[in-house]
Batch of 2 targets.
Target 1
Amino acid sequence: MPLPEFQRNYFQLFDLPESFELDQGQLGARYRQLQKELHPDRYAGASAHEQRLAVQYSALINEAYATLRKPLSRALYLMELAGMSGERVAGEQLDGGFLIAQMELREKLESMEDLVDPASALDHLTTEIRADVAELQTHFSEAYAAQRMSVAASACVKMQYLDKLLHEAEQIESRLLDR
Amino acid sequence: MALLQIAEPGQSPLPHQVKRAIGIDLGTTNSLVATVRGGRAAVLPDEQGEVMLPSVVHYRRDSVPLVGTAARDLGAQFPADTLMSIKRFMGRGAVDASDDAKRSHYRIAEGEQGLVRFVTSGGDFSPVEVSADILRTLRQRAVATLGGEIDGAVITVPAYFDEAQRQATKDAATLAGLRVLRLLNEPTAAAVAYGLDAAEQGVIAVYDLGGGTFDISILRLQRGVFEVLATGGDTALGGDDLDAALADWVLEQSSAPALTAGQYRQLQSAARAAKEQLSVLEEVDIDLSGVLPGGGTLKVTRERFESLILPLVKRTLRACRKCLRDAELEGGVDNIVMVGGSTRVPLVREAVSDFFKRTPLIDIDPDQVVALGAAIQADILAGNRPEGDLLLLDVIPLSLGIETMGGLVEKIVPRNTTIPVSRAQEFTTFKDGQTALAVHILQGEREMVSDCRSLAHFELRGIPPMVAGAARIRVTFQIDADGLLNVSAREEITGAQSSVTVKPSFGLSDAEITSMLQASFSHAPEDKLARQLAEQRLAAWQLLEGLKAALAADGDTLLDKQEREAITAQMSELQRLVDGQDTQAIRMQTDRLGRLSEAFATRRMDKSIRQALAGVSLDALDNEVSQ
């Protein structure tokens, strides 16, 4: 079943300006307002066709909200709107310094579980990674605003790397909790 | 679920009539039914004034099944014929369930497709059928109290139930003759019961320790929208395990030889009774006469009991910590709602209170709160409430994905994604000239296929032979508001398509349900025809009523003259047919009109979007943003 054909992109759907800087409060309020109108629960007594449509619209709104809410997916979506596919973004060259720093962070993570106090070491490391992420977001925002797409793309790739690291850190944390 | 529309032939549903809608909490230990009457949610008692129906069914030869207290009383005497804690077996295979069955002293047989069946002297029954017997009893109670057939029901399930367990629950309701308006997560239901009285804003944690399952959910309530932020838990941890921990300790103390099934049941009930008393008393004597060969009594202090259950309570707190992290909250939790009888245990309350640094809410009876919330949601879905009342946005509890090379799972929809959701991913062929692709759908958080739950297999055929990696296969997961999954695959270059509605192998097929229903209702053929006609008429009425309202509201602005005339012409035709007897003609005309009005419906949805945003005044937004 094809998705409903919106003429608008996700930003337009929520009536928000197309930029990386985003008012989360407005996004949330508009998301809830749209779901209040279009969620399948509002069509529980409607015809089968309308119910199906409501499921599709509601799913689209959820997808748009999930995409815009998180900085990384929002950045990738902006790149896509600018004509840079995920593959092209991923193909961006990275500087050697970043890659070496990545490897060091990864090694630290992998040896984490052998430490005496892994929980606080992990906490320390994730704080460090989050600070790097915040810095990259600023880089992205500036580069995107200045339409320097190649710089913006490399910031995206770096954010993806760090995102993966944070995800692994979470899994280690789960394992520590289960001990 | 067109099979069970309740309207009688010739009786068209009145558009604004109040619907009989019920909420059912199908619990591991007890089940309840509730409804909203005069604006208030209330649980419905049976003839003896009891609201809790023990989730126990007793089967014997040449007799109708006994459900509830009467069945439970026969448990010690006929353990294999008296099925309890059946919820633990829902949607599980025989191999998967054998340990639990052994503990409960059930005789199990492997049915079709590895389906578990219990062997009793009254016949073999699947967990779905046993649950249907419980649901049927509750339905009859509601019919008797409300004075007529039930228009729809909301059935609650643990948030952590997987696809197979949800499908099995829905099948059981269908089999019991209930039209399911929605499967609702238990913690969400509890939050709804509190949400209507409680503050309009805030973050709520629901800690639900039921008979057999533990759920933790974190929700945010904002401007009439309930958003589930994260959910977690343990499907195999509950009050039963607290009882078992105590029972096992008693056994250790007594050095008794192996117990018979009946003795073990009695020991379990003695442990449960002791647990309940220890919520108020500091120590109790467990009477073991008739339970253990030696008889006598055994003293248990609350301290001892707490040391026995502490590891279990800690397990729940670990799940809470994970769930809090998943919710990505900026502030803390404003309220904690306690659900399930086991939250009466003082240690549980203290531990939860310490963990969240808040005193838990216990205003609503923890045994009833889920059923009450389900009744409110049923009332909303049945259309008995003014619009804009309360909206629930729930999530899927477990990640969904497909198998890729090397036995790995590629996640397509991660857990805690808000539903409904539609998400697609592209795959390709890995061999030259490959013309088919097997799609294996899995659920779970682990990376290896062998560690996840297998939901379904299907095959996409007709891919033109190409070099490896040239085909573009788009796999789309669509999950509806019940959390049930539909998967389709399409080769983008040729358009070859294939899809499956995921009916886990442990559920029942539609055909099985239909035949079981027919057997249980034993309708005469003319009844069946009348029923089909009634269903088709109802669908036609729904479409006509909907279109009339839609035309009155938007016919002038969204349709040109020609479009409008085409629709009204087909409406008159359907109107003419609907009073006749030709089921097939009504069906065809309903379809035709549905297709014709498709574009109109889409335009109306688009208009709703524009209006929704125009309706958010800047003041309201500023207000919310500043909070």
Target 2
Amino acid sequence: MGSVSNEELLGKIRGAFKSAFDIDPQAININTVPSDVSSWDSMGHVTLASSLEQAFGLTFDVDDLMAMENVKEICRIVQSKLGQVQSA
Amino acid sequence: MPVRPLAEADIPQVADLYWKVLRERTGSTPPSVRAFIQELYFTNPWMDASLPSLVYDDKGTVAGFLGVVPRRMTSQGKPVRIAYGGNFAVHPDFRTTLAGLHLLRTYMGGGQDLSQTDSANDTSRALLERLGFTTILPFSVHWVRALRPARALTYAIARVAQRSLTDSLAFISKPFCDIADKLAATLSSSPFRQVQSRLHASELDVDTLISCVSQFRNQYNLFPEYDAPSLTWLFSFMERMKGHGQRLRKILLRDDSGTVVGWYVYYLTVGGFADVAQIGGSRKQLGEILDHLFRDAWQEGAIALHGTSDRRLMDIYSDKNCFFTCRGGWTLAHSRKPGFMDILNSGDAFLSRLDGEWCLAFGG
């Protein structure tokens, strides 16, 4: 997972959710899905992706965006991207 | 994935989505909306089974809809398949399914050369840009020309102010507006003066329009392919649906020798802004064509005209006291094939509001 621990990763993801949806970050856990967050619709998803990009200094392409369908997948994609950045 | 092509059996649910979500209406959906959806998506003359409209099906419920209308164009001698997306709606109870993203992604992955929309609002624009669409600025600039400037100003204020205030304002200001607008149309120093055109007008028929477009379009690298059945259907559809006005005016202009110099098509709204669908003709004579259009719309009772600009001709619109704005619907496009985006971004296309989804609106 590179230099970011699981806890740090989830913490940053929670921060991105707070920034995107103005919600209590503690409400977000690894099992959170869009239906758990009322404003996590298509437009919200795009806003969330931008917040995640800012939080991690990454860029997501459209395939990443479509694959990030829950927090578990977001973690997987962010980890994978961070790994790519480290090995580059 | 629950995205699939629209079927005729979906029409009632799609019509409900259109009425309640896109039009923000309450109560039962009028039968005319179902007829509109049926005609637009199952009888349009450009139908192509490989470029279908899409629904997001959540266990039998149509949770989202994206209408797709293919249009045929030509670029550098080769046919171009354009899929125009529009009437994009997701049921509020299903928004967290991310149905909108899935619909757009499926649409973008279709077999078209270009995915395009010509009437996106700010929200759709942000979503589409994130998915890889580009805002095409040359086709997102709109021109506005006041014909009755005092009433146009009152009308513009009415759109941003409270209803009670504007009703009073309209009532109190009407006598003043009538006088001011009369002066504006007649004083020789007025920028809004109506001039008598030397051009001769007649009704523009479909065959003549096809001939006109084929004569003038060759200055561009991308242009629409018109034929009589599809244009006949389109004009009939526009006249019946009244998507942007009360009446469609289609005018052909000739000079004294009988030579065709240009044409225009617009939706007339008496006492409101008239929306121009297409203006054509040579650059040299565009000033006269515009003068004719302004006078025609003024005589018919419009208070202002509004249309999309052609970047190559903006200086002439400016000379005719039009002003420009990007508030009127964004044109966005996406293509996996190189070249098309460059053509669009450079404004090197004869694209009008007759060629996209704008003209396929429902006004009921």
